[in-house]
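Hey, can you fold this one?
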Amino acid sequence: MSSSTLIQFPVPSPPEPAQLDSIKAQLDLVLLALESLTGIGSEAFLDTADKLDLTHVVADRVSLWRLRQSSPLRKGKGRKRLDVDEARSLVLITCHLASQHQELLRRAIALLEQLTADGQPPHRMALLGDYLDTFSNTYEDRMDATLDISADQLTALALKLLIDLFFYSAPNGASRFWATLLERSQLQR
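Sure. Predicted structure:
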């Protein structure tokens, strides 16, 4: 896979600033969920960028940090503007990493389904409990404190993102993720 893969992700019209903000925020949340579940760090993102021939976008930890800091949800937000090609590159990297952890995602989803069917809270199983705790702690550490989100809302967000990640780990996951980002950004107008 190479940067020419970016061509397959259509952009019907140039996104407006509010749409790009929505895309940046959604991307960062999905990456946060992936990190929280798998424990991967910046090195995995950089290795994947190299493998996918996307080092022109994500060359080092600083460039990755700048891309992540572009999220309007972040503390110290807006230090860098994210363009469409950078967003598409992050989609490819995210989906590639999710596919590498598809078995873990499958296990987490199976546990979530089992607990939901039994009427049990997700924290009852170590895998989901650890994921939810890590997600919540990291969210509170990195995101703007003025965003008023309750613990229940944060748990619901983390579980929704977990399910989304499972779909993005599929062979057509990058196309699905990109389409979802565009669709959700249209709703934010």
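The CA atoms of residues 57 and 152 lie 36 Å apart. Let me know if you want another pass with a different chain boundary.
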